[in-house]
Amino acid sequence: MSILFIVIVLLLLMVGGAAAVFMIRTRKAPKTESSSGTAERKRKANSRRLGYRYMEDSPAFFFIKDRGVWTGVRLDTTTDEFQSMAEQESAVDSNLEPMQALLDYFAAQSGKREASVPCHEIVRNMPPDTSDWSTRYDASHWDPTALFSGLVSDKVEPHIRDAAPVRARYLLIRIGEQKGEVGIDPADRILDADDELCNELFTVQELNSFRNQAAEVLARLADYGTPMDRSDLAWLIRKTLAGTHPVDTTTDYSRTRFARNTWFDELVFFNGENLKQQAAVRIPSPDADDDDDGVSGSCYTAALTVSTAESRIPFDYWNAWGRVLRRLPNPPEISWRYRLVSERLWKRMLDDATKTIADEVNDRNKNGGEAAVNNPRFAEIAAESAEVREQMALRPQPGMIGQLRIIISAPTLKELARREQEVKDVMKNFVKLERRKNLQYALLEEQLPGDFDTARMGSRVLAKDFRDGGGVDVGTRYTDLEILSMARLDSAPTVGDGIEIENATGQELGWYGHVIGYAAENGAIVHFDPFVPMARNGGAGTAIIGATGGGKSTLALCLFFWLSESGVQTVVLDPKNDFEKFVHYIAFGPQVLEDGFAEAAAAGTLGLPDSPFQPINRQFWDDTKVVSLTTGKSGSMEPWLLTDDFEEGEALARQQIDHLFSDLSPQDPRRNSIELAFTKLRETYKQGVADDPNYPLPRLSQLADQIADDIEYYSGVLDKHAEKIDAKQARDQLITLRKRLERAETQPYARLLFGHSDVDEGSMIRGFTHRRTVITMIGFNPPKSQEEAAVNESARAASAAMFTVLWQVERVFSAAGISISPHRRKKDTRPRALFVDEAYMITAFAAGASLLNRALRQGRSLYFAVIIISQQAKDINRIEEAQSSGDEADKNQFSTVFVFQQKGNAEAQAALKLLRSSTSLDDEDSAMLSHRLLKQRAGGSLSTGVCVMKDADERVATAHIDSLFDELFRACQTNATQRATAQSHPISSDPREWTLNPAVRDRTQFTAVIGGLDDAESEIATRMGFEYGEFDDLAQPA
Fold first, then answer.
1. Do the beta carbons of residue 865 and residue 816 sit within 8 Å?
2. Which residues, at least 6 apart from 1030, have a Cβ–Cβ distance to it below 8 Å?
3. Rounded-to-integer distance, Cα 672 and Cα 699, Å
4. 934 DSSP 8-state letter
5. Domains of the chain, residue spans
6. Do 449 and 70 touch, CB atoms closer than 8 A?
7. Where does 815-872 have alpha helices with state H?
8. What Gene3D superfamilies does this protein map onto (predicted)?
9. CB neighbourhood size of 200 (10 A)
10. How many angstroms separate the Cα of 154 from the Cα of each of 114, 990, 993?
11. Quick check: 158 and 373 in contact, CB under 8 A?
12. What is the mean pLDDT of residues 315-344?
């Protein structure tokens, strides 16, 4: 027998409804002129309504199926990998909060504090919705390059479609019953006679009451999940009927009927064959021909019901059955219809039930004495009954009546049986499961959201305990409410970006950033964009810490690539040259290994017209600026070149000189000489501009020239008055001052500040206006302290150069003006990001520490992200502590933390403090959790490329980092012994020629076990039994 579901949801321009048809049909007889009409009439005669009648999203989601009115939420999941045992146990109570909120609401509505709330909890394996991700992600970009757009749309999106699904958990609540009159358009009734679909018009008053009720319920669940919408309902219906086939995620509307004032969304067309003997439903491929009775491409689905269960099930977090099922290679899905029963009603129900048993005990005592009472089985029941009665008298509590279904699907019957056994094996300590024959079709229909149309088998009604809302009367259990949370269906290792709804406006905040890897436990995609936490009103900081060789540089470099290519203005402070080598390989490919390349890079001639090294990715290189504090051109950080403004340049020049002469006390007369030299520079420039508006800006090297004039003056005084000792001292001091300035022009680091009028302005780093500015500091030796700078001229020069870099970063940080996004075509604040590798080198400078503190505090409002990479957590902790001056707003500005493998226990303990609060951890818990942060060789859990991530929602989970492309993997290679081999491969500017590497994705996801196809053609002939006896006549040819 074949089953056809046609589910069509209708959106009326007026107050209209939605309709669906469910049809049962036989195998088609050969089409002849005499039989085809009869068969068609027979098909129509055995059709019945499957009543999805109405649905709306706004102002509150609800839908009507048959007479039942339902609303629902997608419940939040819990990432509990780094929770202590006490926290895991307390989660049992917190998971009951949404159910208790529902009971409190409906009990208050009843007036008697009694309520029975029909609910349907559904857990489905949801594949990544890549189209929705790419749309939202694209909308977040400022100015993506062609390379970026091509990689994301043509490569990354198709790649992650095959990533592991996530566990989507929905809670649907029956909020009422449709009882009012319904109007049907007479024309519709006639014109729709063939497909039995008619537009239903509900009264505005009744719909308003449903809207208000749905809004009230959803408001009470707002802290526990996100309201469902039309696409959620459509997906749940499609997923229920898809088995292992892909689920259509289309949400557009299309007009499907001629000359109608309505719009239809065709949700699903379902053909299913009930297999009585095999206790399963066969679902042909959606692409299969309607006349094809073969099984090629088919899949099979079945529901396992609870046969028996222990009266007491001890809670074991690590082996909670929801977690156990989630960790299977092919995680089954859950359909759990239940009634929540309020305390007062539950007590009354139990009192009635236990009173019957108590009366039986009394009767037995009177009639049979102790022997009759001590019958083992009855004695057990009597003891449990007395215990329940006593507990409810002391502490009344709510209860539930539930019907749990565990759904398995597979491409073959053999594989279905294997998966069934797999589930039974892991569930044997909780319940005994059974795959019932004669009920699989009913159990499949029962899984659909909304009311279940009561099924009959002969004269038996299969919904005794669920008259409102429906449910097959199989495996019904009366239990405490805690059974819902003890399963830990909320447990799912979801980590990364998220979207939240702002309560005040209903506006969506955030998006899902780029793919950076996959959750270790279930292979779910990890998205991350440092700007998402800020969009959700979180901190601006991201911390990446870990020992050398653990993979932190790969993550940082990939973030740097994707951010800058999407349009983020990015500045890197790199004490090594990892970022420099990264951009060189992306731009020049294997040319980086050729003789003379390093020398050309140091000279700053790469890509120039006369250079032998021309970029393969020209646009990438043109958008990149590399500045070296050791090999950069003299004068490239000259103050007036950087500012192109006299006043601003003079202010910068004075600060640079202060660093170069920080050994001079404030009373030193040489400071007066410097002041006088600046005054003369100003006067000369002002006079020059008065004479010629195009008069050039001064250069810092001219300061020595001004001092030379003063030396001449004092020399003249000495020529005339040799006895003038003061003049001699002044001249000698000026000579010393001039020599220091002239020496600085050629001194490492300081020479970058002193330019002449012939300095090539193309070599300057004015404004950091490129997409990417990399300040590489390899070989740079900053002063370790202010004391060292006071006695060491080289340290003072390094301090002046570093200050100038930080001054430029400060300009980028402060430039939070409004401009038009080239991509979005609207005014906004351009996103900017600062990467700081080995943060201790920056925080050693007062200006550096001040900049980082202000950027972390104010970054959210200025849309400025700070990504700090360090080997040790103490660098991050030191920054956090520096901000913790009693102002809570200054704390916890690192909204996201990545911890790669740690070297030792002390480092691991410090890293754990970044991932989670230690206030609720005892010493044993702390030692256990921190030990997992060590290298695998040291007994920990982290290998190269694996980290523990804390996201903006405080979720903590282990993740495998994925660079996605071979080209990025090679560019990220920081191991000197492997870099040459890796970067000997060619690279292309065409995104279509980049190579995706699926290794990390495939290694982390749970791949379904696919068995060989059964020889089902021979089986099909023996499967002509039908689920319900009254339909057996349909097997006869029409």
1. no
2. 458
3. 20
4. B
5. 2-32+39-128+163-286+303-342+398-486, 645-759
6. yes
7. 840-843, 846-862
8. P-loop containing nucleotide triphosphate hydrolases (3.40.50.300)
9. 22
10. 57, 11, 11
11. no
12. 86
